[in-house]
Amino acid sequence: MPSKPNLLVLCVDCLREDCLASSASDTPFLDDFRASGLACEQLFATATTTTPAVASLLTGSYSERNGVHSLQHGRLDPEVPTLPGILGEHGWHTEALATGPLVAETGLDRGFDVYRHREEDESLFGDWRETAHDRLASLSEPFAAFVHCWELHEDIDVPAAYDEPAYGDTDYTRALSALDRELRDLVETLPENTLVAIHGDHGESITHRHNPLRLLGKSVRDAIRYYGGVDTRTMVGRLNRALDGLGPDIDDHFLENGHGENVFDFTTNVPFLLAGPGIDPATITAQTRQIDVLPTLLAALDIDVDAGTDAEMDGDALLPADDVTDRPAYIRACGASLHRTRNWARAIRHDGAKYIEYPDREWSAECYDLDADPQELASIEADRLAARLQRHLPTEELGDAERLDIDARLRDLGYL
Questions:
Q1: DSSP assigned state of 293
Q2: What are the beta bridge partners of residue 93?
Q3: Domain endpoint, select from 254, 283, 317
Q4: Domain assignment present for 373
Q5: Are residues 382 and 358 in the same domain?
Q6: Which residue, among 145, 147, 171, 142, has the nearest Cα to 159 in the 3D structure?
Q7: pLDDT at site 2
Q8: Is it the case that residue 323 has pLDDT exceeding 50?
Q9: Are 55 and 63 a contacting pair, CB within 8 Å?
Q10: Is the domain of 308 the same as that of 240?
Q11: C-alpha distances in angstroms, 372 versus 17, 266, 379?
Q12: Contact status, residue 46 vs residue 330, Cβ threshold 8 Å
């Protein structure tokens, strides 16, 4: 057995914390995994679209520092340290099995000894299952592997054996039940001396996907707001208050769909679970951030980064768990479905409140009391609170970013 533990990071696209931590799906493996190691209940993604969220996961930094602004804007800054780069320097073999928009043009392949990108229909629900098992079983130790799973991303193909109410009320929750078994089988192929992290890049709106009224309402909203620049928030809030209850009992908003367009908790609160050698069972209820994942993995592997590397990270380790207190979470909505960068939003979630602003729109900022209004349906007038939260926004600017020539790939994925 090697002296250094192996590491597997399983990044499940669109994995919501609430659906994993509740009875919405049937997830015996993930339930046991959560109980056996470190679990974060209130960890928030840095963005609600895949590429910038994964960039923060791999660098421990926000987009303002790492250079990845959205799916198609910006590539990874070559000077920013990454998980595979750091582990490679310390003797690990590093390998990625990625899919979706995580193409090499983003720069996220940097630092990996091997970076394998597959088509999105190659999933653990199909023939790729054997490929994934064989590849992980053949890695030389010590290894650090990153596996990006696409099974919960729209359009979802639920395996027939799980397409029934016992496994959930939506395609998403049924697919999560099926994925639970596949992740169990994948983890069982690993050597005993392996740390396993399970994480969601961002969440997803799931309850009203195929409702024709929602499809019509959202199309009208999008045209008026994203192309016309009209502030539709008051109208949309009223519709959501009236119609949210039409679907399953899952936190969501009627007029939302998918991810990338908003910073609601159901698209930002994602699980982070870590189990394996040296990890004691613990649950962190304090608010934490996606940028804290990389420092935590390094701490779990007993890697001390030098001062220069540490200075490049915005996050802090979540170990020891007993010492973790609430941390302000910075979140951005920058999905391709917003159509133009001027429609991007950014937010701070801190101290039981959320502040949202639209830097390139002349719209007033929003402020929510999350204790009184966890669904974020009624913005409050609270200038002092807003000013206090605003101070937690990054001091760096996003600045200009190269527009990547990956439109054909994003169109195939349904983003454009």
A1: H
A2: 143
A3: 317
A4: yes
A5: yes
A6: 171
A7: 55
A8: yes
A9: yes
A10: no
A11: 21, 17, 11
A12: yes
Q: If DSSP codes are grouped into helix, strand and coil, which group holds residue 376?
A: coil
Residues 15, 153: contact at Cβ < 8 Å?
no
Per the CB < 8 A criterion, the answer to whether 38 and 318 are in contact is yes
State yes or no: cis peptide before 371, omega within 30 of 0: no
Residue found by looking up tokens 């098992």 in the block: 133
pLDDT given at position 304: 86
Helices (H) and strands (E) in the chain, counts: 14, 12
Q: Does residue 18 sit in the same domain as residue 48?
A: yes
What's the rounded mean pLDDT across residues 196-214? Answer: 93
Same domain, yes or no: 333 and 184: no
Range of the domain at 388: 212-263+329-413
Residues 203 and 269 sit within 8 Å (Cβ to Cβ): yes
Sequential DSSP letters for 388-401: HHHTTS-SS-----
- Residue 398 is encoded by which pair of tokens? 């996003």
Residue 83 pLDDT more than 60? yes
CB atoms within 10 A of CB 362: 7
pLDDT band at 399 (very low <50, low <70, confident <90, very high): confident
β partners of residue 11: 148, 199
- Counting the structural domains of the chain, the total is 2
The residue whose two tokens read 């192309």 is: 227
Q: What single DSSP character describes residue 87?
A: H
The answer on 349 and 299 residing in a single domain is: no
Which residues, in sequence order, are bridge partners of residue 149? 12
Both 93 and 156 in one domain: the answer is yes
Considering the entire predicted model, what is its pTM?
0.96
Location of structure tokens 């349906």: 377
Burial-class residue 94 by CB neighbours within 10 Å (0-12, 13-18, 19+): buried
DSSP code per residue over 163-196: -SGGG-SSHHHHHHHHHHHHHHHHHHTS-SSEEE
The amino acid present at 3, given as its one-letter code, is: S
* Residue 324 lies inside a defined structural domain of this protein: no
The CATH number assigned to the domain holding 275 equals 3.40.720.10
Which of 296, 317, 338 terminates a domain? The answer is 317
Q: Is the pLDDT of residue 307 over 70?
A: no
Residue 182 corresponds to which tokens in the numbers above? 């596949």
